Amino acid sequence: MNQPSYHSSITVNITALAAFDGISHVSAWWANHVEGSSQKLNDVFTVRFGKTFANIKITELVPGKKIIWLVEDCYMDLLKDKNEWKDTQIIWDIEAKSDQTIVSMTHLGLVPELECFNDCTGGWNFYVGESLFNFLTRNKGLPGTGIRATIANGSRIYEGTLFSKEQSLTDFPNGYLLIDVKETNVERVISAYSLNMLNKENFGSLKGDHYMIVENKPLFENIQPSEDLLDTIK
Questions:
Q1: φ/ψ of residue 186, rounded to 5
Q2: What is the DSSP string of the chain?
Q3: In contact, 132 and 142? CB cutoff 8 Å
Q4: Considering 115, 138, 161, which residue would you say is the last residue of a domain?
Q5: Which of 81, 125, 156, 181 has the greatest count of CB atoms below 10 A from its CB?
Q6: One domain, residues 164 and 220
Q7: What is the pLDDT of residues 151-166, one digit of tens each?
Q8: 181, 67: one domain
Q9: What pLDDT is stored for residue 205 in this prediction?
């Protein structure tokens, strides 16, 4: 039996043509690092999150109605199969309905049996459901530089951003933690070499291939987050 591919949709109070145009501005809602053009039929562009990248070709373009992206090549840094997205298609269906527009996205080939399905589902839920929605409705998307990831101690889960060691340290406000990552399970950090308050000095002595930035914010009263996460350092 065929497994269903990832699917999501949003409803926005703009025209179908405006939604169509917004989707094509990939760097405004998906990734800060985008190379190439994503506007015309047969355009090829690359989306990068550190070592992770996808080379995408626009294979169908119907203004105000449909966009199809074909992943021609990819490198998924955190997966066993680095080419898991290759030959999948990202299909956008745009439907004008009264004074609103329904934007539906299907990532054809991103099915539950794939290693990244659960984590990629979370990523797409954020980038389509929140970032693209915000960009289309408020002109303020939330494109990523690193990979959205989690780290947990028991039932307490912290969300943060995972970067390749080669990526420069981006500016974060005070009150964030720097985790020197030892081991991951896709987009979940499961062990670390160290955990410190974020500063330029400890960034220069990383042991792992990745680092994670997490807001130093306790999820429960009277729990210090640095102590809460120490059990993940093995």
A1: 55, -115
A2: -PPPPEEEEEEESS-HHHHHHHHT-GGGTTBSEEEE--SSTT-EEEEEETTEEEEEEEEEEETTTEEEEEEEEEE-TTSSSTTTTTT-EEEEEEEEETTEEEEEEEEET--TTSTTHHHHHHHHHHIIIIIIHHHHHHS----BSSEEEEEEETTEEEEEEEEETTSPPPP--SSEEEEEEEEEETTEEEEEEEEEE--HHHHTT--SSEEEEEE---SSTT--HHHHHGGGB-
A3: no
A4: 138
A5: 181
A6: yes
A7: 887 777 888 899 998 8
A8: no
A9: 80
Could you tell me the residue range of the domain that residue 209 belongs to? Answer: 147-232
User: Alpha-carbon distance 233 to 52, whole Å?
Assistant: 25
Report yes or no on 47 lying in a domain: yes
Name the pLDDT band for 1 (thresholds 50, 70, 90): very low
Q: pLDDT tens digit string along 114-170?
A: 999 999 999 999 999 999 999 999 999 999 999 999 888 777 788 889 999 888 877
